[in-house]
């Protein structure tokens, strides 16, 4: 028994270290945006590598490198990108930002993270969706007067245009958020979900 533990434990530690290192880094990513998308989208200057472990991330709808459908067309999907300059991203005026505040300390039983990903996909090209852990960014949550979670805020020209105040609803669901973002002038293009 001692021999198995002495071999398994180091191997487990090595695999864990490799996984943690690879989850957010500068090595060749599993997915890569189309070069023309990066060059033509000024918001991309605020984004870095693919990263699924940060407390804030941009949800970007882009090509998945090496993935194609049966006809050879590239597949698209939501990729989480680290944000290299959150303040710069929020105050730039080229593209509106949809902030999705959530809590890492609560489970996502209402499916709001899936909704945020769907909104990022259906509104791609018109705005950028950013997920923010309010527990890790209490200063930002305070700045935007977040009183309950999850919460959505639309930023245009560096200013708060509107807030989906979940605390004002007795009961609400994803459709209420979709109606809110539509009333702000951003109806989701649901054909992008097909």
Describe this structure in words.
- Helix content is 31%, strand content 26%.
- It is of the alpha+beta class.
- The protein has one domain: Glutaredoxin, CATH 3.40.30.
- It has a 7-stranded mixed beta sheet.
- It is globular.
- The N terminus is likely disordered.
Task: Name the descriptors.
globular; disordered N terminus; single chain; alpha+beta; 7-stranded mixed beta sheet; Glutaredoxin; 6 helices; 194 residues; 26% strand
Helix residue percentage: 25-40%
What is the assigned CATH homologous superfamily? Answer: Glutaredoxin
Main beta sheet: 7 strands, mixed
Q: Distance between the terminal alpha carbons, to the nearest Å?
A: 52 Å
Strand content: 25-35%
Give the number of helices: 6
Query: Which series of helices and strands comes N to C?
Result: HHEEEHEHEHEEH
Strand order of the largest sheet: 1-3-2-5-4-6-7
Model regions low in confidence, pLDDT < 50 over at least 5 residues: 1-23, 25-36
CATH C-level name: Alpha Beta
Shape annotation: globular
Which whole number gives the mean pLDDT? 82
CATH architecture: 3-Layer(aba) Sandwich
**SS-based structural class?**
alpha+beta
> C-alpha Rg, in Å?
19 Å
- Count of β-strands: 7
Tell me the domain tally.
1
CATH topology: Glutaredoxin
Fold topology:
Elements: H1 2-22, H2 35-40, E1 47-50, E2 56-68, E3 74-83, H3 86-91, E4 97-102, H4 112-122, E5 128-133, H5 138-143, E6 151-156, E7 159-164, H6 174-183
Parallel strand pairs: 4-5
Antiparallel strand pairs: 1-3, 2-3, 2-5, 4-6, 6-7
């Amino acid at each position: 028994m001692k021999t198995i533990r002495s071999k398994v434990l180091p191997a487990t530690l090595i695999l864990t270290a490799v996984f943690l290192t690879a989850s957010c880094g500068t090595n060749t990513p599993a997915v890569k945006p189309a070069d023309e998308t990066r060059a033509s989208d000024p918001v991309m200057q605020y984004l870095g590598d693919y990263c699924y472990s940060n407390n804030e991330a941009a949800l970007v709808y882009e090509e998945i490198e090496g993935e194609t459908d049966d006809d050879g067309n590239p597949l698209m999907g939501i990729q989480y990108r680290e944000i290299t300059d959150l303040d710069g991203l929020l105050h730039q005026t080229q593209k509106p930002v949809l902030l999705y505040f959530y809590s890492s300390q609560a489970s996502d039983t209402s499916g709001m993270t899936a909704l945020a990903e769907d909104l990022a996909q259906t509104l791609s090209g018109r705005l950028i969706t950013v997920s923010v852990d309010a527990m890790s960014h209490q200063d930002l949550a305070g700045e935007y007067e977040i009183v309950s979670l999850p919460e959505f805020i639309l930023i245009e020209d560096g200013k708060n245009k509107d807030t989906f105040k979940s605390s004002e609803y007795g009961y609400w669901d994803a459709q209420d958020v979709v109606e809110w973002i539509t009333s702000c002038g951003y109806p989701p293009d649901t054909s992008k979900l097909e």
